[in-house]
Every structure is written in C-alpha cells, then in structure tokens.
Amino acid sequence: MVKKVENYKIFAKKPTRIPKSRYAGFLFKIIILPYIIISILGIPGVAFGMHITEGILPPRWAIFWFIIIIPFVIIGTLKLKKKKREVPGFLPLVGIVGAAVFVFSCFPIPVVALNGMATAHPAGTGMSAMLLGPFVSVIIAGIALFIQALFLAHGGLTTLGVNIFSMGILGSFSGYFAFRIAQRLRFKLFWCGFFAGVISDIFTYIGTSIGLGLLVLEGGESFFATVTQSLKAMLEIFVVFMVTSQGPLCIAEGIVVGLVISYVYKVRPSILFSLRVVKERTDALPA
Question: Which of helix, strand or coil describes residue 192?
C-alpha cells in the first residue's frame, strides 16, 4: 500500500512540470514569429541609425540620462531575481520575450524629416511589461538596446541612457498601466493588449522627442525663450514621428499584442495565471 502511494506521488508531479517546460517554445511560436512577419513588412531600403544615434547628445546630457535610468535598472534587476525564485520557468520566458523585443526593434524605418537623428520602429516593451512587469521590461529593453548599439550600430553607447529612458522606462510603464486600466474598465482581453501596445509606442516616441527637444537648452538665450523653443521642438519631433511612420506602427503593434495575449489566454491560460497577468478569468473579458 505504501509503494502505491509513493508511485502515485511520483506520477502526480509530472503534470505540473510538463506544461511549464513548454512555455518557452509555445511563446516563441506565438510571440516572435508574428513580430518577425510584421517587422519584415516594414524593412526599409535604406536604414539610418536606430533610436537616437551615436554622437547626437553632448556629454552632460548623456550623463544626465544615465543617472535617470540607474534606479530603474537596479530595481529591475532585483525584481528579476525575485520572480526567478517565485515563478518556475521565468528565465526562459524572459529570454523569449527579450528576443521578441530585440527582433521587433531591429527594423528601423527612416524618418526623413529628422535628417537621420532617429528612426521609427516597433518597440515591443508594452508586451514585455504586460507579461513580465515594467521593471523587468526595463532590463529587457536595456539589454536589447545595448546589443544593438554594440554589434549592429543601431543607437549608440553614449545615447544608451536616453534610449532606455524612452523605450525601456516610458514604453514599459505606460504600456503596463494602460493594460491594467483597461482591465479595470472591463475591456476584452484583446483590447487590453491593444491599448498596451499602442500607448507603449506613443510614450516611447514622447521620450525620444523629449531627448531630442532638450538639446535646444544648449542655446544661450533667456530661460523662458529656451524652454519655449525646447517644448516646441519636442512637439514638432513627436508630430513628425506620428504622422510619417509611427502612427501606423502603433496600430499594427497594438493589433499584434492584442492577438498574442488573446491567443495565449485561449490556448494556455495557465501561463498568464502563473505570471499574474490575469489573476482570475474575470480580470479581463475574453476576446
């Protein structure tokens, strides 16, 4: 009788582990592949430096942005370690989502009106923040941006701080809160993901516009005139982004994120439960 109980215990452990070991492969199929397809459709014939390019920022601004991001990177690292202990298979999920963010932001679309200072591209941080949390998403964005700057000449090492601020911090937190607010408003899960993707993209380019617009403060005019010119530059840069290329990309990314989160909920809801994206089946109405 004792042997039967022991055998039963051994057998009972397998069902809880097998699904979690397949999370990474499952998410690869439904996250990275759609992102690659959408990104390939936007590959330009000529590509300039991605994000804010190397050499654009004076040293004092480069240092300023690095100081801004340090607290978020530290907290994100601590959150990553904590979730690794609490959620089985969390690191493989981080790898898969990180790969999606890297791939999705690797296809720049030149913004001609900015003379090569920056490019438009999908971000992916809304999805990563929605699934893994905003602080962990900052780490993912930082690693993706660092690799792109180091090996692909996209962005730059001196502009890494401002690019992490725009894509990592503003993109992640805006997407995360957009998703949670949509959940509280009882939107269907597709629309929760849609708004996460769209809002994340919008705030990413608000951050880029801030980073470029603040360069006007280098002028020697009065404080009021300089601030006015800086705000005007930020607005103009943001409008250029949204009208020329980023507007359609926002919609496209929102649709992709909405479809991905809805599909995961229908096929493997346990993934969303384990990541606490959806606490109960009533958190957000199914798509």
Answer: helix
Give the pLDDT of the chain (287 residues) as one tens digit per residue. Answer: 444 444 434 344 443 343 444 555 555 445 554 554 444 444 443 333 347 777 888 888 899 999 999 999 999 999 999 998 888 888 888 988 888 888 877 766 665 555 555 556 778 899 999 999 999 999 999 999 998 888 877 778 888 999 999 999 999 999 999 999 999 999 999 999 999 999 998 888 888 888 877 777 665 555 566 667 677 777 776 676 556 666 777 888 899 999 999 998 998 888 888 888 887 654 555 55
Please report, for residues 132, 158, 208, 248, 281, the alpha-carbon distance to residue 234 in angstroms, rounded to integers and kept in the order given.
30, 20, 9, 20, 42
Q: Which residues share a beta bridge with 110?
A: 119
* Residue 181 exposed, middle or buried by CB count within 10 Å (0-12, 13-18, 19+): middle
d(CA 220, CA 184): 48
Neighbours of 7 (CB within 10 A): 10
Domain with residues 30-37+47-274, CATH architecture: Orthogonal Bundle (1.10)
Q: Judge contact between 32 and 96, C-beta under 8 A.
A: yes
Half-sphere exposure of 203 (CA within 13 A, CB side): 23
Per domain, the residue ranges of the chain are 30-37+47-274
Three-class secondary structure of residue 107 per DSSP = coil
59 residue type, one letter:
P
